[in-house]
Structures are given as structure tokens and as C-alpha cells.
Amino acid sequence: MNAIESLGSVVKDARLRLGYTQSQLAEKVDGATAEEVAEKLKVIEDTFAILDPSHDPTTSPIDAQALEWAARCSVGLDKLMADNCLSGMADYYEGLK
Predict the structure, then answer these.
(1) CA 61, 62, 65: angle at the middle one, nearest 5?
(2) Are 69 and 3 in contact (CB under 8 A)?
């Protein structure tokens, strides 16, 4: 599965206003280096308390692969923001169709 399939669809009018396409975001995500992802994982671990699921019986352990994917997507979004001179960005995930 490539980044385009994994990212699902996003709001079309926001993409048009910002001048980026889903494939451009996918390229940024796919192009994230191992070093960039590792750096982002460090930021995530320094920012969030990742508790053992025993603290809440309704939770499950955090999947390392899912956490790595989140870091990779974050790197891609950071690059997209930098390329478009944005100081922030809001979007929402509609899910796979």
C-alpha cells in the first residue's frame, strides 16, 4: 500500500486553496527519510506520555508500526507546510472510500 492509498481522501476545496494535491502530500510522506522519522518519533515521545495499557482496560498497546506511520505523515505534512510557506494547517481525515 502506498501513501496515497493510506492517506485516504481529504477536503478538496482546502487542497485547491492551498495549492497542493493529495499526490504531493503522498510524495512528501513517501520521501521522509529514516533520520527524519526517527527525529519526529523523538518529538512524539518527548511530547506525549505513552502509558502502559494497564492504566486503562479499554486501551491496547500502541503499535510501533502505527506510531512510525504517524511520524512519517507528520514529516510529510511539515514539508508540505514549508514548501507552501504555511505557519499551520488544518485538515480532517474522511477515511478510505
Answers:
(1) 130
(2) no
Q: Which of 2, 24, 10 is nearest to 96 (CA)?
A: 10
Transcribe the chain into DSSP letters.
Answer: --HHHHH----HHHHHHHT--HHHHHHHHHT--HHHHHHHHHHHHHHS----GGGSTT--PPPHHHHHHHHHHHHHHHHHHHHTT-S----------
**Positive or negative torsion for Cα 17, 19, 25, 31:** negative
Task: Give tens-digit pLDDT for 9-31.
Answer: 433 444 445 556 678 888 999 99
Kindly report the pTM of this predicted structure: 0.69
Q: CA 69 to CA 74: how far, in whole Å?
A: 8
Q: Looking up cell 481529504, which residue turns up?
A: 10
CB atoms within 10 A of CB 40: 21
